[in-house]
Amino acid sequence: MTVLTAYISGIGLLGPGLSSWAASSAILKGTQPYEANKTIIPAPELLPAAERRRASNIVKLSLATSLEALATADMLTTDLPSVFSFSNGDGLNCHSICECLASEDREISPTRFHNSVHNAVAGYWSIATKNMATSSVLCAYDGSFGAGLLDAMTQVVVDDTACILMTSDTPYPEPMHSKRPIPDNFGMALVITPQITAQSIAKISVDVTQEAADIFSDPLLESLRSHYPSGRSLPLLQAIAFAQSQAQSKRVIIDYLEDLRLLVEVTPC
Length: 269
Hints:
The protein is of the alpha+beta class. It has a single domain, classed as Peroxisomal Thiolase, Chain A, domain 1. The chain is 38% helix and 22% strand. It contains 10 helices and 8 strands. The chain has an 8-stranded mixed β-sheet, with helices on both faces. Strand 7 and strand 8 form a beta hairpin. It is globular, with a radius of gyration of 18 Å.
């Protein structure tokens, strides 16, 4: 594979004990202790009232992380291509539809139905941001972050355009939770640009490798990385945080497929 090189110009992060990228970089560097608090998702104020009432947690989560990343990158634009990569989508809505289909009254509400499609989040996001550019919507189970990063980086390099990547996970209720145990809501977003900008945080180069993925020595952070597919992004975010503070390049191996990982080189801007 050709090595893909681009620039991270904005980051958004929201998960248990991680209230934003700005608040979490010190935790990832180990200079502030991690506290495992429940994820608090802000209301999606950019959505019109009707869509706001229908919005699920995965919509709210994607909006929160993407808006933080876009604000950091100073790219609140309506023509930014986007990549959405989710390991399972809206777990609560899937559970509710299954409950309905297992009951005597099997009529599914239109809202439940249109929220059930995997690209529903992309639709809500385009309404909220008034973005008219193309969107890719992916699913690769536990490799969803890696798949999304490769897709976004490829677009940036091949099309010479900026792109935003959003990856999020939301929990299923029981009984599906026992089969797919995602504990809470977790999401992150990256704004990736082909050239360095005034807001660029780090230069990254992505290649594939068969080396083992990096894990955290901190068991609480490792629990986040291993229990949330989008949490596979945390070693990369840690490398960015360290690269910024130490003004030196970092190398990190990120989970992707069972027999293939991503090798990422991070250089501070």
